[in-house]
């Protein structure tokens, strides 16, 4: 007597729902377990087979880039604010996203190494380049701070996260690092 797994294959009608379920599962598991979480776990978490996952995202990097695009949308929305404080809001959200999911920094490094056409780094630089001068003009950030300095500070924050011996200590360690990196005013 045949058994049923309880799942019904709805075929192409479920494609967009399946894609979103995979993205949601990937975001959650990348955050919880890191960039190298098994893709089979992501598929299971989405309630789909691995074939469905691979149909939408042929590689781990394709999947991570799709999830990461949501982060960029948030950062771009913040940077589009003409207020001088947009840089500080952008910086704060960059740090929050890095703490929430350091896996995306790993993904960006992987993309930079394996995809010469990857523009994530340039996009992030442009967001900083657009917002930093406004913050500097009103004295929110020292005029000597450069885009390269901001990116260096971000890599330092990631280093604190990546090397934390106990995940429970990450938040306090990041806050201490941010205190040490505080943006002095002019």
Report on this model:
This protein is mainly alpha-helical. α8 runs antiparallel to α9 (170-180). The chain is built from nine helices and no strands. It has helices at residues 15-33, 39-46, 50-56, 60-79, 86-100, 103-114, 120-137, 147-163, 170-180. Helix content is 68%, strand content 0%. It folds into two domains: 12-58, Arc Repressor Mutant, subunit A, CATH 1.10.10.60; 61-186. It holds the Pfam family TetR_N. Residues 38-57 bind DNA. This is TetR/AcrR family transcriptional regulator.
Describe this protein with a few key phrases:
186 residues; mainly alpha; Arc Repressor Mutant, subunit A; 2 domains; 0% strand; globular
In short:
It is built from nine helices and no strands.
Query: Measured on Cα atoms, how large is the radius of gyration?
Result: 19 Å
* Intertermini distance: 77 Å
Decide which structural class fits the backbone.
mainly alpha
- Which band does the percent of strand residues land in? under 5%
The portion of residues assigned to helices is: 55-70%
Number of helices: 9
Main sheet, how many strands, which sense, barrel?
none
Reading the helices and strands in chain order gives: HHHHHHHHH
